[in-house]
Amino acid sequence: MKFRYILYSALAMAALGTSCSDALNEDPKGKLTPETFFSTQDELNMGTYALYRKVCDMQTNTNPMMAAWQGDDITTNPGSNKQDLADVDAFHPSDGNKGAKWLWETSYKVIKAANGIINNAGKCPTTPEEINIAMGQAKFWRALNYFYLVRRFGPIPLPLQGDVDYSRPLATVEEVYTQIVSDLKDCVNILPTSYSKAPRHINNTNIYITKQAAEATLASVYMAMAGWPLNKTAYYKEAAAMAKDVIDGVKSGKYEYILEPEYKHVYSISHNNTNETVVGISFSGSFTWDEDSEMSKSDLFESLGGWGDGWGTIKFWKDFPAGPRKDATYNPKILKNNGRNGETELIDWWQTEECHPMFCQLTMGEGNGDYDYTKPASYTSTNGHRHRLIRYSEVLLWYAEAQARADGTPNTLAYECINKVRNRAGLPNLTSGLSGEAFAEACFKEHGWEVAGYWNALVTRRDDLMRLNRLEQTFNDRVKNEPIEVAPGVLVKETVLVPANVKWQAEKSIYLPYPAFDAELNRNLKR
What we know:
The protein has helices at about 1-15, 35, 40-55, 85-90, 100-120, 130-155, 175-190, 210-225, 235-250, 315-320, 325-330, 390-405, 410-425, 435-450, 460-465, 470-480, 505-510, 515-520, and strands at about 75, 200, 205, 275-280, 310, 335, 345, 385-390, 485, 490. By secondary structure, it is mainly α.
């Protein structure tokens, strides 16, 4: 069964990857192209499986997500093989940065596959419902990848067909957002609220995108549009409305989302298909999901035998409220040498070679089970961890912040939403009677703690800082790099340094450089 679907997906990918120019001067009879492919329901399914294969590539390793290292929650090793990460961390990546290159390539490959479905699936001789499901998956992932690209690069090419055009002009940021909103609104209108069979539904979880998942994503897009660089604050009202529809659907039993009662299960492999996940990328290693996530060693320090891609920043760790959420985000203690020689001693992070807090959301226990920091971590790099791009806790916080910013004063539901998230984290209810600004700031902080170090999130800490135009402050803090007391008499500083000749350059510092190879092909790709 698995081989059959992988083969079909390979054929479909070949079809969706064919450009118009490839067919020039050829006899198209018998040639597999997007125009000739969608002739049966099976072929429509294959096309969607091929799209999801490209979706898996978006996050199979850390490279496409390097922009998250601009956030004040993540840093990295300034040496080793982490130079590309360190350059993004210090706000001066070059046009040869592999993170920018991978993000650009993986996102545009998803967009190309999605365009093939969007422009051709409508002719498939099947039911309108099946066409809507395929079109909805394609429009969603096209929108989401344009959302990634516009926040990382600013103005970008906006192809909506399958053609290759190296002279394509850049669409403005606003034009890109207009297309994103259009695609997501279509998803809300045409997608069902649930599925019943694999691969659309696995282990009581909707794997395919649903109406409510599109609504939640649209709420995050409206939040971004309300902030920098568009600064169209009226969109906070739209964001609140979209998030509220999801919340109302959960309360009525129409939508399946939950808050995990215990925060330790938010990212655990034993709760891999938790319905706290609103939008996820599945890496199950079976059926059509035939790719593994390669991140089991990404949090584990190199000195412990891992890859150590992302370290926790010291100030963010210190400001992070104590409780079960912090203990599930960072190792409370670190097993010396990862127990490689039978060690059982637990030490503090400032006693390690890296001298930084160590994240643990992606770390697996032995046998790829749940991780227990008192025991050795797994050295296996691949696993079936379902990436949690959006969680229900985020929807609650987006509603709370957006409502307070839109109306000027938080309402009862806004308090209810943020307090649910805080209470699970072991924190008391937020003080009542706060101004809209103070309440919104509390929501911003709460979201940062919810996604700290989890670069797989659709809206990372870096994205929140960008929306509120605070990345310059993050840059300035890194330039100062003041020592921080982490224990009585223990002062430590960050390791990645901003070079003395690197100055803040507004948009040029915020956005990643266009990849050099693509810029050579398309002369419009320039700052």
